[in-house]
Amino acid sequence: MNQPLLNAASHFGQILRANAKRRFRILTVLTACLLAGVALTLMLGQSFTPLTTVLRVLGGAEVPGVGFTVRELRLPRAVVSVLVGACFGLGGIAFQTMLRNPLASPDIIGISTGASTGAVFAIVVLSLSGPAISVVAIASGLGVALLIYTLSWRQGVTGGRLILIGIGLAAMLQSVTAYLLMRAPSWTLQEALRWLTGSVNGVQLGQALPLLIGLLLFGGLLLSRRRDLETLRMGDDVAAGLGVGLAATRIIVGVSAVALVAFATAVSGPVAFVAFLSGPIAARLMGRSGSLLMPSALVGALLVLLGDYAGQFLLPARYPVGIVTGVLGAPYLVYLLIRDKKTKGTL
Hints:
Protein name: Iron ABC transporter permease
Order of helices and strands: HHHHHHHHHHHHHH
Number of strands: 0
Radius of gyration: 21 Å
Strand content: under 5%
InterPro entries: ABC_BtuC-like, ABC_transptr_permease_BtuC
Pfam families: FecCD
Distance between the termini: 39 Å
Number of helices: 14
Membrane topology: Multi-pass membrane protein
Keywords: Cell membrane, Membrane, Transmembrane, Transmembrane helix, Transport
């Protein structure tokens, strides 16, 4: 091999190593921020608990006046927030990458709305409660995703058509939800409203287990397809030319992403714009190289965790986390709609 080729190969290797180091540093910082956020939410609330006492309580020690607050109130909220945020972050970036459009987020195209409508229907019409509502919400989310995909199919599915059909279906589902709420008796109205705003109020640690199983199962499936998913960012023709099985990849990625969003919505309701925001924020941090799955999961977890804390303790009144993230996400959606005309929709 001649010297110019050796120099070029060496330079390319240096770029790859530099990108890998930068990626590792950013992932480390995001993980550290998430751990610090969890520690903050366990220590600070209406009262302050030192970190050493928190660790003693988590280790099983009985500390009068603190054990119930940390173990029963703060810990479930922090754990569920992290898992819900990670599910939304993974589901959002999977859709946005596969369809090569940042607007193709589950909370924009109606999948979260479908799960919410199913939950409200289960409460108001079927008079269900507890885990049965979550089962109906997951099934509704999967059903709406299948309906959107079927209606979008015309010798293939394009991102623009799927997004428009999803937005239309979301509007219809919101009308159905409003009709159900009008007919709802007053004693079920509060429970039903929780499924519309997105909240982790009153969550129990037991709700984290099915969420964790869903995250490990479907998140693992997404990670196993991360290289194919990244190749799809270059277009179908390029991906097919590089040996990516387009149909199989789309089915695995689509089902996994929908399931993650449905599992998260079944616990917290639709936490607005977390799936929509996580991917673009991760892309700004990481650049264009490498998979955005893990960074988006970490960003999503941070958004829900800190959004819930801000809604509880940093604002004049207490608000559900969905309202806080909605306030953050709405301006970005407007910005993206304006920017999209120039960039043709990229992360």
